[in-house]
Amino acid sequence: MNAETAVKTFRQIKDGKLFGEDLETFLEVLKYFTNKSEYAEEELYGWEKIVQVKLRDAKDFYLKTNNPFTEHPKLDIKYGNVHSPDTTIISDVDTFTGIMCGRAQRFTEGSMLFRIEGDGTQASIFFMLIRLIAQEFTEQKRQGLMKK
């Protein structure tokens, strides 16, 4: 992942223009920026949960933190399924990416388009990391460290 592609994709997220075909790039960008972010590093420290995402029309994947108690914990995203995740998100790829970028709203309990099973609070890790990365972008821009 190069920085230019990552910034372009992050702007798509911010502008609400992330779609199903952008899923793999979105996951690469999320991992890329999270693992470079001091803000996200603090959030990942001690986070031992696993969030599984099951998509009806795309590859399933899960998130976890590698070595959550080291000085610099890193986000890991793997394709496939994991046994006994703490949280499972069930959706289709367009609904999932729409929610990630704010284009679509989260759905009510019992919705078939977007459902969370298990510890629902852990599903917010996506939104937390995106928010932290955005904060860091804003700070870097303010300091003149990032190209427009």
Protein model, in words:
- The chain is an alpha+beta fold and 148 residues long.
- The protein has five helices and five strands; from the N terminus they run αααββββαβα.
- It has a five-stranded mixed β-sheet.
- α1 crosses α2 (23-34) and α3 packs antiparallel against α5.
- It is globular.
- This is SCP2 domain-containing protein.
- InterPro entries: SCP2_sterol-bd_dom_sf (IPR036527).
List keywords for this structure.
alpha+beta; Nonspecific Lipid-transfer Protein, Chain A; 5-stranded mixed beta sheet; SCP2 domain-containing protein; SCP2_sterol-bd_dom_sf
Radius of gyration: 15 Å
Ends distance: 19 Å
Question: How much helix is in the residues?
Answer: 25-40%
CATH topology: Nonspecific Lipid-transfer Protein, Chain A
* Number of alpha- plus pi-helical segments: 5
Q: Output the helix-strand order.
A: HHHEEEEHEH
The percentage of residues in β strands lies in 15-25%
Biggest β-sheet: strands ordered side by side in the sheet: 3-2-1-4-5
CATH superfamily: SCP2 sterol-binding domain
CATH class: Alpha Beta
Structurally, the number of domains stands at 1
From the helix content, strand content and strand pairing, which structural class follows? alpha+beta
Rough outline:
globular
- Number of separate strands: 5
InterPro entries: SCP2_sterol-bd_dom_sf
Protein name: SCP2 domain-containing protein
Organism: marine sediment metagenome
